[in-house]
Amino acid sequence: MKNSGFTLLEVLASAVIIALVMLGLANVFFAGKYYVIHARSRIAASELAKTFLDPLSSQVRQSSNNTTSADGWDEANNDLRNGTRYCDSVGGHTQQANCIPAAQRTLDNMDYSAKYDISQVGGTELRKVKLTVNWTEYNGTP
Q: CB neighbours of 61 closer than 8 A, spacing ≥ 6?
């Protein structure tokens, strides 16, 4: 008489193999979720960077006729003076008036802040603005 069926050993071996395959697939999905969240955070940061920089465009002048300085950049009301500006009050910094409010810098419970450094391009009247956007990413734990 021939028995057709699976032995207990065969069932256990196949269960272990299926469990290992499922564990590998679960890791792929968890890693994918992290990369999607990270990409979304970077896209949000780039959009916020544009929002941080937009108010500075009103400070760019074509003429240099003024009484304060030779090139017009160092006027007291010009936000394109050389130096570092902060768009938050963290760490004792003074938040710049032209920065967007903190409520508009939050997305998916992540708070974004920015700092921009303004320096003169050597030998010219041009200014270089380097904007740094910081945020703390969600790491998957509540």
A: 72
Q: Which residue has the tokens 């990413």?
A: 137
Q: What is the CA radius of gyration of the chain?
A: 28
pLDDT by residue (tens digit) across 68-81? 455 555 666 666 67
What tokens were used for 70?
């030779």
Number of CB atoms found within 10 A of residue 1's CB: 2
Determine the Cα–Cα distance for residues 86 and 115; give it in Å rounded to an integer. 4
Q: What is the rounded distance in angstroms from the CA atom of residue 96 to the CA atom of residue 110?
A: 21
How far is it, in rounded angstroms, from Cα 99 to Cα 133? 12
Q: Give the three-class secondary structure for 53.
A: helix
